[in-house]
Design goal:
This protein is mainly beta and about 120 residues long. The chain has a domain of about 70 residues. It is built from two helices and six strands; from the N terminus they run ββββαββα. β2 and β3 form a beta hairpin.
Length: about 120
C-alpha cells in the first residue's frame, strides 16, 4: 500500500480521463466527517488559483471520484529518472595512414576540482 500523498506533493488532475491541470497539495486537514479530508490545492496555471476539496484519502491517492457528475482523478507526479547517456559517436578506428599523437597528456577535470 502506498503512503498517502502529502503536503508539497505535485499532482496531475484528470477530468474525464484527460489531463486538466497540475497542482501542489498545500494542506490536508481532517474534515468533521470521519474519513474525509479538506485538501487545499494550488493550481499551477496562470493565474494561480487555490481550491479546497473535501476528499477521502483514497481519492487523494488517485482513486477516481465524481465532482458535479464528472469523473475526476489526481495522480502524483514523480520526477523521471535521468536517461542513460547514449554514446552518439562511435569510437574512432585507427588507420595505418595517420597515427594519433600519443605525446599529449590527458588532464582530468574531476581531479582539478578536488584541489
Amino acid at each position: 500500500m502506498q503512503a498517502m500523498n502529502q503536503e508539497n506533493d505535485i499532482v496531475l488532475i484528470y477530468l474525464e480521463n484527460s489531463p486538466l491541470a497540475f497542482a501542489r497539495i498545500e494542506s490536508i486537514e481532517p474534515d468533521v466527517k470521519r474519513g474525509w479530508f479538506i485538501t487545499k490545492l494550488l493550481l499551477l496555471q496562470i493565474p494561480l488559483q487555490v481550491v479546497s476539496w473535501i476528499l477521502r484519502d483514497t481519492y487523494i491517492n488517485g482513486e477516481t471520484f465524481t465532482m458535479g457528475g464528472k469523473e475526476m482523478r489526481m495522480e502524483k507526479v514523480v520526477c523521471p529518472e535521468d536517461p542513460e547517456p547514449v554514446d552518439k559517436d562511435p569510437p574512432p578506428q585507427e588507420s595505418n595512414a595517420t597515427k594519433p599523437d600519443t605525446s599529449a597528456k590527458v588532464i582530468s577535470l574531476a581531479d582539478l576540482k578536488k584541489k
